[in-house]
Amino acid sequence: MPKRLNMSRKKTIAIDMDNVLVDIETNWINWYERELGVRVTREAMRGIPEDQAFPDPEAARKLLYQPGFFRGAPLMEGALEALEELNREYEIYIVSAAMEFPNSLLEKHDWIAEHFPFISWRNIVLCGDKSVIATDYMIDDHLKNLDFCKGIPVLFTAGHNIHVTKYTRVNNWKEATALFKRYLVA
User: Fold this and answer.
1) Beta bridge partners of 16
2) Which residues contact 33 (CB under 8 A, 6 or more apart)?
3) What is the chain written as a DSSP string?
4) Distance between CA atoms of 108 and 105, rounded to whole angstroms?
5) CB under 8 Å to 132, separation ≥6 — which residues?
6) What is the pLDDT of residue 123?
7) Computed over its alpha carbons, how large is the radius of gyration of the chain?
8) Domain ranges within the chain, ordered by starting residue
9) Rounded CA gap, 183 and 111, in Å?
């Protein structure tokens, strides 16, 4: 099979969805409260695996399999403007390890189409294992994905990764945009 060429010759960035483009922490907290009647704070999610922040981790995890969980999740602040800007200088790929949650495939596709209509379907990768991704850069909140990044990994801050010091970190989309502007001139 012929290899698809990056005809634009732009550098490429793989950008994760959950906790990077999508505010999954807020969505999960809201769903948990609605379904189980218990409010968990974002502070409770700091430094531990996401599901462990909830009083009933198993019930919290089951929410991820519910229809509508991913489709209605809020956009991360500044993500739209950042991707519009980065898309001018880089080839952007939205990448999500979505296979574990079958409902999420269509929901994530529709979410991307709504929030990022300028991203071509050719630049959306819903996979099971991100180690197959071979972009120049990868922005993700999970070490399990960044550890196998073939390019330059960038850690996006989320509650569960606040103690990680292994990678270049960005705390928000303003910082991410500034970092990638610096990479252009480096």
Assistant:
1) 95
2) 39, 40
3) -PPPP-TT---EEEEESBTTTB-HHHHHHHHHHHHHS----GGGGTTS-GGGGSSSHHHHHHHTTSTTTTTTPPBPTTHHHHHHHHHHHSEEEEEEE-TTSTTHHHHHHHHHHHH-TTS-GGGEEEES-GGG---SEEEES-HHHHTT-SSEEEEEP-GGGTT--SSEEESSHHHHHHHHHHHHH-
4) 5
5) none
6) 98
7) 16
8) 12-22+75-185, 24-63
9) 29
Check residue 78 and give its pLDDT. 99
Supply the pLDDT for residue 155: 99
Nearest partner of 153 among 173, 133, 172, judged by Cα: 133
Query: Active-site residue numbers?
Result: 16, 18
What is 12-22+75-185's CATH number? 3.40.50.1000
Splitting the chain (186 residues) into consecutive groups of 10 residues, what average pLDDT does each group show? 60 98 98 98 94 97 97 98 98 95 94 98 96 97 96 98 97 99 88
What is the reported pTM? 0.93
φ, ψ for residue 137 (rounded to 5)? -140, 155
